[in-house]
């Protein structure tokens, strides 16, 4: 089975934390996430992990013993921000601000309209999460949200890239297909953007230029550490990833006793070094 046939869309977003219980409370109280699983395991030392969901958006918050300082010292990463769909955008932003959420420096005055993304533009406001991760509330003006109100789970995950074409090709090999495009004019120059989709999960690939492109090289692992994609069969995906020349980080397929029957997973690197976990939740 090719990797593209094995991958079944997004599974979770991995966010490391130095304060697991505080982060869980922050997500529950401020954005309406619900914790549905929590476990302490031994993996390179003590690892506490909690899984939370907001409709189809699952985040894995994890605290690795001894890595607090490293986590706190991380800056913005190649995985730049994640975005939650907000049909009644103004209300959602007002509620976030009433809860005391702070704007991220990328949208210092709050809501911005991106005229040239998608057919009818996009509205977004970037907020700072409990681990300094960037969380966008996003309203895509091309989507008919009907009467839905409140935060709706996944909108997209944004990745800053050095070569848009190379990134699109890489994700096409993982079964993504092109779903839209746009551009953004910035002081650095025009940033071209491509959207790719896998089973309803969208990546926003942002081609950097100028000083931003230079800085990308030193971004490394950021506050959003990895994105996990679901696979039907992790063993086969591991074999295929190695065979097709992917940069596989792990020597062996890893296992953790999460959920009822455990998970099997491994990590590959995308074209700019972004971490992509391929993960199978076992059903037996
Ligand atoms: Fe993960
Ligand atoms: Fe975005």
UniProtKB/TrEMBL annotation:
Q: Which InterPro entries match?
A: Glyas_Bleomycin-R_OHBP_Dase, Glyas_Fos-R_dOase_dom, MMCE/EMCE_epimerase, VOC_core
Tell me what this protein is called: VOC family protein
Which SUPFAM superfamilies does the annotation name? Answer: Glyoxalase/Bleomycin resistance protein/Dihydroxybiphenyl dioxygenase
* Keyword Amino-acid biosynthesis among UniProt keywords: no
CDD domains listed in its UniProt record? VOC
Q: Does the keyword Metal-binding apply?
A: yes
- What's the short name of a Pfam family annotated to this entry? Glyoxalase_4
Domain VOC: start-end pairs: 9-140, 153-281
Q: Which UniProt keywords apply?
A: Metal-binding
What PROSITE patterns does UniProt report for this protein, alphabetically?
VOC
């Amino acid at each position: 089975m090719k990797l593209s046939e094995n991958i079944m869309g997004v599974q979770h977003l991995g966010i490391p934390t130095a304060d697991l219980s505080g982060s869980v409370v922050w997500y529950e109280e401020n954005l309406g996430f619900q914790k549905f699983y929590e476990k302490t395991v031994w993996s390179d030392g003590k690892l506490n992990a909690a899984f939370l969901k907001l409709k189809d958006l699952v985040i894995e918050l994890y605290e690795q013993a001894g890595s607090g300082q490293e986590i706190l010292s991380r800056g913005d990463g190649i995985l730049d921000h994640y975005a939650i769909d907000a049909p009644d955008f103004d209300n959602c932003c007002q509620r976030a601000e009433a809860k005391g959420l702070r704007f991220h420096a990328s949208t210092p005055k709050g809501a911005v309209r991106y005229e040239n993304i998608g057919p009818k533009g996009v509205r977004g406001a970037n907020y700072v999460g409990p681990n300094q991760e960037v969380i966008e509330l996003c309203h895509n003006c091309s989507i008919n949200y009907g009467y839905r109100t409140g935060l709706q789970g996944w909108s997209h995950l944004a990745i800053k890239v050095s070569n848009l074409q190379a990134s699109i090709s890489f994700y096409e090999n993982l079964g993504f297909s092109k779903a839209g495009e746009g551009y953004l004019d910035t002081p650095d120059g025009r940033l071209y953007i491509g959207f790719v989709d896998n089973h309803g999960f969208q990546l926003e690939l942002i081609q950097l230029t100028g000083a931003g492109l230079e800085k990308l090289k030193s971004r490394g692992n950021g506050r959003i550490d990895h994105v996990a994609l679901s696979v039907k069969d992790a063993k086969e995906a591991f074999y295929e990833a190695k065979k097709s020349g992917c940069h596989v980080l792990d020597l062996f397929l890893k296992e953790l006793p999460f959920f009822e029957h455990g998970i099997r997973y491994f990590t590959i690197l995308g074209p700019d070094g972004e971490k992509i976990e391929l993960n199978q939740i076992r059903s037996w």
